[in-house]
Design brief:
Elements lengths: L5 E8 L5 E12 L5 E11 L1 H9 L1 H19 L6
Organism: Streptomyces typhae
Protein name: Polyketide cyclase / dehydrase and lipid transport
Amino acid sequence: MQHRLKPVGLEFIAAAPGLRALVEEWRLAPVTATRTRVQWTFAAGAAAPLRLALRHGRRGLDRSFTTAVTNLDRLLAGKDAS
């Protein structure tokens, strides 16, 4: 049985050159008794060069987010996070 994702955090940030606004949302949903689906969404209001960099860096952001969540899962499970 899948559950709807529920927001767990909403944060507004703007502290980088060219960045006017950044909002991120985290949603967690239980998948099984031992698994949780994590969804991270963010939107940025930025100058054109930064928007271009974010667009082209999407795969790297996805990869780093997946790695970070995997490492957190391992850490919480008591396994080596390296």
